[in-house]
Design a protein that fits this description.
Structural class: mainly beta
Oligomer: single chain
CATH architecture of one domain: Beta Barrel
Low-confidence stretches: 1-35, 43-68
Length: about 475
């Protein structure tokens, strides 16, 4: 089913010639993207962008009498941003949500300030969307008329040690829109309603330290107060509610018991990595909580139980393309025995991927992903009557086909997920056209298919939507 759809996309693109994701060339995120509990397994695949120029310093030169005070202080200031309108609609009736999926007017303002000794960045979005009822800003969830994306200061403390402090967007791991060891927060609502792929990655308030040695490099990120995913809660996307035994949405918005004590409900992420030749090896660790609700309190609130994750990855060239592999052990710290039906069991997660350029400007990437629930027999024994059971293994195949035409100004893309175990699928077709140096237009869709309403993608079958956007960059 998926292959014909992707081949159809390429055929349409070919017919239009010459007149005209984190795996998905693939669009790179501009910033360093359950009730139901969305697993950290849907991925970007690039490391955090390098710090802007300015950390290493620049040689001083005599000040010119015509230079501004900013130039006198050897500071550089870059201002940029964009204005965007984005409209989307569901193509099926959903009794629990509005017909419009998005109706957004957005203004992003970005400022980069650099000196020989430090670099700072501020990125903020001002937006309005009548699809939602709440416009008061809430910086943790990104709801409302203001979304503070980045606000950080970076500097070096030694020749081999960098520090970044403040609100920042971080990512690591090797998956393409599949995440195993990337436990930084994701915005699944943005992903499913048709925002630009960069918005899948949500910000962290953190201190990140990077150490560089001849033997290996080490990244440590400390988050003093838990940053959860911006998960599906029914306000914009309907979902399967196990308590009600049906799909729900605005009629049953998920209420949470979220860890929220500074320096007590904290998180720590770490990565040790090095390259041998063209091959990069990495080991990862995380101590915190399930990023989307991974359980339920006795009172019926969605909960975020304790979670530790340990993993590793490898990525390098193979047969003319790039191959990657990743592994993670999810230690559900509050229920290691798997006997509590209100808390997620521990899991093992596996990923293999390969990307190859089939022809000039035509790239195919494929992945095979597995989630293995541990203590599955205990899970089945404790499962309440009437609640659909999860399989011990969940398999997911993905494919991303990308074609760049018209001197790479027109990008045709189709990213597809298919789960043979759940018998459901999710497709993300899109076409993006760079009109000129300022204007960019795009159209796309989020298509969900499933045989059962309780499976991961099947629960969103009424949320299928199409969208269009126009952006002016400055």
């Amino acid at each position: 089913m998926l292959a014909p759809l992707c081949l159809c996309l390429v055929s349409l693109a070919s017919a239009a010639e010459p007149a005209l994701p984190p795996g998905l060339t693939k669009p790179q995120p501009k910033n360093e993207p359950s009730e139901p509990a969305l697993p950290a397994g849907l991925g970007g695949r690039s490391d955090e962008p390098a710090l802007p120029t300015g950390l290493g310093g620049k040689p001083e030169s005599p000040a010119d009498e015509n230079e501004s005070p900013l130039a006198d202080s050897h500071l550089t200031l870059d201002l940029s941003g964009f204005a965007e309108g984005r409209l989307g609609t569901r193509i099926q009736n959903d009794p629990y949500e509005k017909t419009a999926s998005i109706g957004e007017a957005r203004l992003q303002l970005e400022a980069d300030l650099a000196s020989p000794d430090w670099t700072a960045r501020l990125v903020t979005d001002v937006l309005y969307d009548p699809v939602v009822d709440r416009h008061e800003p809430h910086l943790e969830t990104g709801e409302g008329a203001l979304d503070l994306r980045e606000a950080w200061l970076a500097f070096s403390v030694f020749d081999n040690a960098d520090v970044k402090v403040g609100r920042q967007i971080m990512t690591w791991g090797t998956g393409d829109l599949l995440f195993i060891n990337d436990l930084f927060p994701k915005d699944w609502n943005a992903f499913f309603i048709g925002r630009d792929e960069e918005y899948l990655k949500a910000p962290n308030d953190a201190v990140r330290v990077s150490l560089f040695t001849d033997l290996a490099n080490l990244d440590v990120a400390y988050v003093p107060n838990f940053d959860a995913d911006r998960f599906i809660d029914g306000q914009r996307i309907s979902y399967y509610n196990a308590t009600l035994g049906r799909r729900a949405g605005r009629d049953a918005v998920v209420q949470t018991d979220r860890p929220n004590r500074w320096f007590r409900d904290d998180e720590i992420h770490y990565r040790l990595y090095r390259s041998i030749g063209a091959v990069e090896f990495a080991a990862y660790g995380y101590h915190g909580f399930w990023k989307s609700p991974g359980g339920q309190t006795p009172g019926g609130l969605a909960a975020f139980p304790g979670l530790n994750v340990y993993g590793a990855s490898i990525r390098g060239p193979l047969l003319g393309g790039i191959a990657n592999g990743e592994f993670g052990f999810y230690d559900s710290a509050d229920d290691r025995g798997g006997r509590d039906p209100l808390i997620n069991n521990s899991e093992l997660r596996y990923l293999l991927g390969y990307e190859h350029e089939l022809a000039t400007d035509l790239t195919l990437g494929v992945q095979y992903y597995v989630e293995q629930m541990l203590q599955h027999d205990g899970y089945l024994a404790s499962l309440p009557a009437g609640v659909p059971a999860r399989d011990a293994f969940r398999h997911v195949l993905t494919a991303r086909l990308t074609w760049r035409s018209m001197n790479q100004n027109l990008i045709w893309s189709c990213f597809a997920y298919y789960s043979p175990s759940d018998r459901d699928a999710y497709l993300r077709p899109s076409v993006t056209y760079k009109i000129d140096d300022h204007w960019t237009a795009s159209v796309g869709g989020n298509v969900f298919v499933g045989a059962e309403q309780h499976t991961f993608f099947g629960q969103f079958s009424r949320d299928t939507n199409v969208y269009a956007s126009l952006r002016y960059g400055f």
